[in-house]
From TrEMBL:
Ranges for region Disordered: 484-507
Membrane-topology annotation of the record: Multi-pass membrane protein
GO biological process, alphabetically ordered: lipid modification
Stretches with biased composition (Polar residues): 496-507
Pfam families: MBOAT (PF03062)
InterPro entries: LPLAT_7/PORCN-like, MBOAT_fam
Protein name per its UniProtKB record: Lysophospholipid acyltransferase 1
KW Transmembrane helix (keyword) present: yes
Entry's localization field: Endoplasmic reticulum membrane
GO cellular component: endoplasmic reticulum membrane
UniProt keyword terms in alphabetical order: Acyltransferase, Endoplasmic reticulum, Membrane, Transferase, Transmembrane, Transmembrane helix
Organism: Bos mutus (wild yak)
Organism ancestry: Eukaryota, Metazoa, Chordata, Craniata, Vertebrata
């Protein structure tokens, strides 16, 4: 918990240090969990005692912002200044820039500031091992700043006939006030772990129009309702808290038992045979997932507890609270293709990339979306190993799928075999592709590759990948609005995975 000089390896609060030592969990992670659990309690209180019918929107904005600022300072200490500086700079752009340029200026300032912070953590703080990772909230705020700037530009600077149906629905017709702006960016429900959401949805939630607005988007009378109901989020919150608890238990057992550092152990690199290495790689990468499941599901539950995240009525007539969900665990674990996998991982980031880049750039949308995704995630070398591997695998997959998949669709038996094989290959393929992403640095990635993993497996995996039903895009190929590699920054460097708080693992 301390570096060589005896200083705590955090810039946030140290009041929970005794608990951190008792549990054997890094202080950053304890602070993160404490803030999110406090946010959950605050969310219930916010919904019950500051309900829209009894409290003005200004008061709800103010309390949401004050709580959010407190949690950021508690987790990150003086590093939270970066967040506040970025928010103030971009609000200055919002009120002073011309409508024709507001989205450009906001985008370049927000992404530029975020990139500078990413670079400083690698080249100034040596991968940030002894410093608090404050980039997570910056990444979320950057998404929101750019999302709002583009939606304001759509609402005030473009003709309605030039907008897509979704852009027209989300267009903002008036610049937000300062209170609305900071509340949207810094509210306690999403400032630590996200997810990104739309400004109009957030304002509708604050003003008490959120659930009714979503009900009116569907023909709710056909679902058996004769008047607008008042759906309760309690059931959804309880379900997500159960998932969160199971994920936490898995994190404390599996993740500790199979750390990412084991991929560069001498036994793995020099002694294990190919099949053993492949299976062990799968186990290690599976063990790295619970922390993301925990953080993202808890963040979703916090928003739902406050009454935010209602998405309408599903085909069975049940109320849905998945508007802000960042993943679908069942579909991830049963995915039989990369397309299915990435469409259900870090959903909100994929949506952001589609809305601010892929749908808007006039040329090379896939390439530019790749560049934006890479810059947003950071400048760790491991990210780029994953991106490049994913591109090669995708190209091979598309070719093989096109030429061979139809042979397996002639009978149910063949289709069943196909599904089983493609599930196994997809899960192994994801592990193979994403391993450098979670190891971050060049040295451990090269060590993994030099173990024979590429020499023995690359050709086989590329061929097998093609049979996984990879009709869509992998990684940053957002033809299907997917972003599969948002799994944060757990370090392969010894101490690193523990020194980075869960708040740094959820983006």
């Amino acid at each position: 918990m301390q570096d060589g000089s005896g200083a705590y390896r955090t810039t946030g609060s140290t009041c929970l240090h005794p608990l951190s030592e008792l549990l054997g969990i890094p202080l950053d992670q304890v602070n993160f969990v404490a803030c999110q659990l406090s946010a959950l309690c605050a969310a219930f209180w916010f919904r019950l005692y500051l309900s829209p019918g009894e409290t003005s929107p200004a008061v709800r904005h103010a309390f949401a912002t004050i709580f959010g600022i407190y949690f950021v300072i508690f987790c990150f200490g003086w590093y939270s200044v970066h967040l506040f500086v970025l928010v103030l700079m971009c609000y200055g752009i919002m009120v002073t820039a011309s409508i024709s340029n507001i989205h450009r200026y906001s985008f370049f300032v927000a992404m530029g500031y975020l990139t500078i912070c990413h670079i400083s953590r690698i080249y100034i703080f040596h991968y940030g091992i002894l410093t608090t990772d404050f980039s997570g909230p910056l990444m979320i705020v950057t998404q929101k700043i750019t999302t709002l700037a583009f939606q304001v530009h759509d609402g005030l600077g473009r003709r309605a006939e030039d907008l897509s149906s979704e852009q027209h629905r989300l267009a903002v017709k008036a610049k937000p006030s300062f209170l609305e702006y900071v509340s949207y960016l810094l509210n306690f429900m999403s400032v630590i772990a996200g997810p990104c959401n739309n400004f109009k949805d957030y304002i509708a939630f604050i003003e008490g129009r959120h659930t009714h607005m979503k009900l009116l988007e569907v023909n709710w009378k056909e679902k058996g309702f004769h008047s607008l109901p008042e759906p309760s989020p309690t059931g959804a919150v309880m379900h997500k808290l159960c998932v969160t608890l199971v994920s936490l238990l898995l994190f404390l057992t599996l993740t500790k038992t199979f750390p990412v550092t084991s991929l560069v152990d001498d036994w793995f690199v020099h002694e294990a045979n190919f099949l053993t290495r492949l299976c062990y790689l799968y186990i290690v990468m599976q063990a790295s997932k619970p922390k993301y499941y925990f953080a993202w599901t808890l963040a979703d539950a916090v928003n739902n507890a406050a009454g935010f995240g209602f998405s309408g009525v599903d085909k069975n007539g049940n109320f849905s609270w998945d508007l802000l969900s960042n993943l679908n665990i069942w579909k991830i674990e049963t995915a039989t293709s990369f397309k299915m996998y990435v469409e259900n991982w870090n959903i909100q980031t994929a949506t952001w990339l589609k809305r601010v880049c892929y749908e808007r750039v006039p040329w090379y949308p896939t390439v530019l979306t790749f560049i934006l995704s890479a810059l947003w995630h950071g400048v760790y070398p491991g990210y780029y190993f994953t991106f490049l591997t994913g591109i090669l695998v995708t190209l091979a997959a598309r070719t093989v799928r096109k030429n061979y998949r139809h042979y397996f669709l002639s009978s149910k038996a063949l289709k069943a075999v196909y599904d089983i094989v493609t599930w196994a290959v997809t899960q192994l393929a994801v592990s193979y592709t994403v391993a450098p992403f979670v190891m971050l640095a060049v040295e451990p990635t090269i060590s993994l590759y030099k173990s024979g993993h590429i020499k023995d497996a690359d050709t086989q995996l590329c061929a097998l990948h093609g049979q996984t039903g990879l009709g869509g895009a992998i990684l940053v190929f957002y033809d299907h609005s997917s972003d599969e590699h948002a799994p944060g920054r757990p370090k392969i460097v010894q101490q690193g995975a523990d020194s980075q708080g869960l708040e740094s693992m959820v983006h």
